[in-house]
Amino acid sequence: MMTTRELAQAISLIESNDPRAETLLAEIYPRTGRARIIGITGSPGSGKSTLVAALAKHYRKQDKRVGIIAVDPTSPFTGGAILGDRIRMTDLYTDRNVFIRSMATRGFLGGLAKATNDAVDVLDAGGFDIVLVETVGVGQDEVEVVRTVQTNLVVLVPGMGDDIQAIKAGIMEIGDIFVVNKSDRPGADKTVTEVTMMMSLVEEHGDWVPPIVKTVASKAQGIDELDAAIVRHFEYLSASGELDRRNRDRVRIRIETQLKERFMDRLIGGTIPRAEYEELLEDVLRKRNNPHDAAESVLGRVRF
Known about the structure:
With 304 residues, this protein is α/β, with parallel strands linked by helices. The protein has two domains: 4-241, Rossmann fold (3-Layer(aba) Sandwich), CATH 3.40.50.300; 254-299, no CATH class. It has eleven helices and seven strands. α4 (84-87) links the parallel β2 and β3. The longest helix is centred in the last third of the chain and has 26 residues, at 242-267.
């Protein structure tokens, strides 16, 4: 079992693209696949961090080890994570069976950081029973999380103008469970009704009909009901074969991502010298060439 220091060092190697990270990830990969991976996504202000903290405390009462990956916005000054999530989870720091790591998006789209999948593997192999992945809170494009987790929670909150706006494009299709947080506010029932109506227009869920759970995370209200819904979803995934399909999709995406990155690294600087590539960019910039023909000219040098 990895110590807190070893976990932190391992994730730092991954984030910094240290060559030692590949060796580490290869060594730990056979020990992955045991943890329950839960995503928490939704709009800023919906109380995702508070919900994550409430879930972590709930699982600790069950004597489960909890890993938390909180993907924060990137600081425009340092390039690191703006640690808003960790600030709101300070009361969990003294628990040695809870590990919290903030990761900066660093321009990576979809609400996650580039190294999130690998960090999940580290915590999984490190013996954590539950891994909670909280996305950055960018709104409609937080769909990458579904390729990382087994159960995805979409968090909504009543009284924020157009309550359903945050899930109109993309997010609606990836919600396994919808959480109406801060449900002690006026309009909670209205939000539940709107989500129910929206779900009737979505066919991607198949046999699983996403439940809607009302919570007040700051008071730990509704957390038992939310956990029960998460358990039911995992049972459905296992019984239907959907869990194997999701795991296969996750592996496929990770391999393809690695292939794309390595292909580009070897193409630019290898097949085509960096200086020549910069000249190609200049030609396109000055309208002496166009992006399509430029790409074709580079690919023409590749032997498949």
